[in-house]
Design a protein that fits this description.
Layout: H1 9-20, H2 22-28, H3 34-41, H4 45-73, H5 76-95, H6 99-127, H7 130-161, H8 164-182, H9 199-202, H10 205-210, H11 213-243, H12 248-269, H13 275-298, H14 303-330, H15 336-357, H16 363-389
């Protein structure tokens, strides 16, 4: 393991936190601009929504592509290229006069923004001892949990002070600033530790990574916990405002309050050493809260009870994410770039699948059902992990 000597831990984690926030900012930063974009490009709202889908698809696929590249060429140079191309993609968005090029540049923003998500995690894994991993992964998880709340606010402020082009200009300037700062980071993967095969052959290493069943189960567990979170996020505007009758401002305050649960859950993990116990109890409580959220919706319980159950459900998701990511990466000794890429891609892939399902039929029941299914799968994965760990399962060849 190579440690960063010239950059303090606090400064390094601050930089990596900014890189981690790229994912949520790519998808959420320009949400306040969507109505204006519909008018500017003279297209339907559904076509503008495709630009959101393009960004999420880019984030998922980009992580899978960038992971092997970082194991082949190191961490620093791929990161710098990703940031440089992200700046170009932001400029392309600003200059777009038609929706098709705009969607294309949004896809490129997702693909290159994914570099920050992958490389921030793997630099942490390269640079710190196993005892410190949970602490710093928890910091990144807290940033990633808070970013979806901050992103629309910052984007809305940039939009109100200028235009939608100004919002994308701020995003590009942020990436340019990180590009300048990251030039001074030290490489954390030595030449002797890098993959020697051609980069296109490195993708087959994904097969060896997912054969590590402990890694695979932890990855899927954090993925389905994130999918439960996405089910809530995608349905929450309709549930809070149409079902419970909250105003947009009241909804925003509740949404921000629930995000606090996510951040607090991630922060608490920093002080706990027994991550297996954290994973077990967080998953059990997650299932319990998912059941109570569903019951509160189906039986039309008071909003206050629903909100309490929801807060603690997100609190458990906040604890699960850094705990499972740390356990998963601890079990991987090689190809950590690809392992980190899979850890980052799975939540986006599963979340992208769950989000549209919450809009099928009655959204109240759809959200409750999707959260319950995701939580139940988490419980099943926890049971599988426990049986393997205690030796009740024999390995299959």
């Amino acid at each position: 393991m190579k440690h960063i000597d010239k950059t303090s831990k606090r400064t390094l984690v601050f930089i990596l936190g900014n890189l981690t926030a790229f994912g949520p900012f790519v998808t959420d930063f320009y949400l306040p601009c969507l109505p204006e974009l519909t008018s500017f490009f003279s297209v339907s709202a559904s076509l503008i929504q495709v630009s959101l889908t393009a960004g999420m698809l880019g984030l998922a696929v980009g992580q899978l592509l960038i992971g092997p590249v970082t194991d082949k060429y190191g961490r620093k140079q791929p990161l710098l290229w990703c940031l440089f191309l992200f700046v170009l993609a932001s400029v392309g968005c600003v200059l777009s006069k038609d929706i098709i090029p705009f969607i294309g540049f949004r896809l490129l923003q997702g693909l290159t923004g994914a570099g920050g998500l992958v490389i921030s995690k793997v630099i942490i894994a390269d640079s710190f001892s196993p005892a410190d991993l949970a602490k710093y992964f928890a910091v990144l998880a807290a940033v990633q949990g808070a970013a979806p709340i901050v992103a629309p606010v910052v984007g809305g402020a940039a939009f109100s002070l200028s235009s939608w082009q100004g919002a994308f200009g701020v995003l590009g300037l942020w990436a340019a600033g990180l590009l300048w700062v990251c030039r001074y980071l030290e490489e954390t993967l030595g030449e002797c530790e890098r993959l020697k095969m051609p980069v296109w052959k490195t993708f087959r290493c994904y097969v060896y990574i997912i054969r590590d069943r402990h890694y695979l189960v932890m990855n899927l567990l954090q993925g389905f916990a994130s999918a439960a979170l996405m089910a809530y996020i995608s349905a929450s505007p309709f549930i809070f405002q149409n079902y419970f009758g909250l105003t947009p401002m009241e909804y925003s305050l509740c949404f921000a309050g629930n995000a606090v649960g996510l951040v607090v859950g991630s922060s608490i993990v920093m002080k706990i050493k027994d991550l297996e116990a954290v994973t077990m109890w967080s998953t059990i409580v997650l299932m319990s809260m998912a059941i109570l959220v569903g019951v509160a919706l189906f039986l039309a319980w008071p909003f206050a009870l629903f909100e309490v159950f929801l807060f603690f459900m997100l609190f458990c998701v906040g604890m699960l994410t850094p705990a499972t990511v740390t356990i998963a990466l601890r079990s991987v000794k090689e190809n950590r770039g690809m392992a980190s890429a899979l850890l980052g891609a799975v939540p986006f892939l599963l979340g992208g699948m769950v989000a549209p399902l919450t809009g099928i039929g009655n959204i109240v029941y759809s959200m409750a059902l999707n959260i319950l299914v995701c939580a139940f799968i988490c419980i099943c994965l926890l049971g599988i992990s426990y049986r393997w760990r205690t030796g009740f399962c024999t390995e299959k060849h």
